[in-house]
Design a protein that fits this description.
By secondary structure, the chain is an all-alpha fold. 63% of the residues lie in helices and 2% in strands. Strand 1 and strand 2 form a beta hairpin.
Length: 361
């Protein structure tokens, strides 16, 4: 009798376990069917609590498929993703136009490439001192080859221009991907924000190539020095971002110092170029665009650090208008200003005689 009772008890416990397992499976199935919800700041795990002034509409640890599809839905990262995706498309368009014979860029940038005092500029030489600007600073990019013959037979290489465009595209697409996928898990958060910062480093490095290459085309040693220096500093920054041993808090100031070194290192070659070619109006025009770029980046940094305007009214700018979105727009505008400055320098260089003519400087 006791054996029969024990057997009955065992059977009932097995049945209970099976029923409990089935209930769990049904609950899991129902949960999977439910669409992941947006969360408030207080509901987030600590590693996702970055900006306490953005109060709602967070994605948190969603499945990868839902995260990928969220690029088309509305949440507090939507505009962060799309502002840099649109920027990416802009620079892809520039790349395509540079590789084809389309000249629509002339109309697109006409307002930027021709200063208001155009009549005064029309008295400049073709060597950069008097005569005229060519029709547009952007006209040279319609040549589909990497080597375009301009002016009096001088060949202006286009690969530094493509290096800049490539760096800008890498930075912008890394940023968009990071804002899209970083919410998936703690591991993803660490990886994608490192990827984002490495994209910034790559863009800074690549931004130097075109203006330095064209400005110092007749000073090869200076050109090599500037490009080598910024490349080495940029590689060091990327290493510190991804090396596990260099991710602790005590190295944050070191990484910040490297970023500052990369940013301010552009002042030195710019000052050098102005000292050499201050009597060339195109160089001064390019400098104006570069100053505009610096001011746009600085303004973006101010919004990024102060977290204005959401700090002023928490919760009011969760979806539209918060500081990181403004920062993204200013970054794209700054990169665009730099592209115009580069085109000015390219156009100036193509109107000059070869270096061995002894006219530069």
């Amino acid at each position: 009798m006791n054996n029969m009772k024990n057997r009955g008890t065992k059977k009932s416990s097995k049945i209970e376990k099976l029923e409990h397992t089935e209930k769990k499976m049904n609950i899991n199935k129902e949960n999977k069917k439910l669409k992941p919800r947006l969360m408030k700041f207080e509901e987030l795990p600590v590693y996702l609590q970055d900006n306490e002034f953005i109060r709602d509409y967070y994605r948190c640890e969603w499945p990868l498929k839902d995260i990928a599809l969220s690029v088309f839905s509305w949440h507090n990262e939507t505009l962060n993703i799309w502002t840099h995706l649109v920027g990416f498309v802009i620079f892809v368009t520039l790349m395509v136009m540079s590789l084809t014979e389309k000249t629509i860029m002339e109309n697109l940038l006409a307002g930027f490439s021709r200063p208001a005092g155009e009549a005064r500029w029309m008295t400049m030489k073709k060597n950069g001192t008097t005569d005229s600007f060519p029709d547009s600073y952007t006209s040279q990019i319609s040549n589909p080859s990497f080597l375009g013959v301009y002016g009096d037979g001088y060949e202006v290489v286009l690969w530094p221009w493509f290096v800049f465009l490539g760096g800008a595209m890498i930075c912008l697409v890394f940023s968009s991907i990071s804002h899209l996928f970083a919410c998936h898990s703690h591991k993803f958060t660490l990886f994608f924000w490192r990827l984002d910062y490495s994209g910034i480093s790559i863009m800074i490095i690549c931004s130097f190539f075109a203006p330095v290459y064209y400005t110092f085309c007749c000073q090869p040693y200076w050109r090599l020095f500037y490009l080598t220096s910024i490349t080495i500093v940029g590689i060091l920054v990327i290493i510190t971002l991804f090396a596990p041993s260099l991710t602790s808090g005590k190295f944050r100031s070191f990484r910040a110092a490297l970023f500052l070194a990369m940013g301010f290192s552009g002042v030195i070659p710019a000052a050098h170029a102005v000292s050499l070619y201050f009597h060339h109006p195109q160089v001064l025009a390019a400098l104006v665009y570069e100053i505009a770029m610096g001011l746009l980046y600085a303004a973006g940094a101010v919004f990024y650090v102060t977290r204005f305007p959401e700090r002023w009214k928490p919760g009011a700018f969760d979806l539209v208008g918060h500081s990181h979105q403004i920062f993204h727009v200013l970054v794209v505008a700054a990169a665009f200003a730099h592209s115009i400055a580069t085109l000015v320098i390219m156009d100036w260089r193509r109107g000059l005689p070869p270096c061995n003519a002894g006219i530069l400087g």
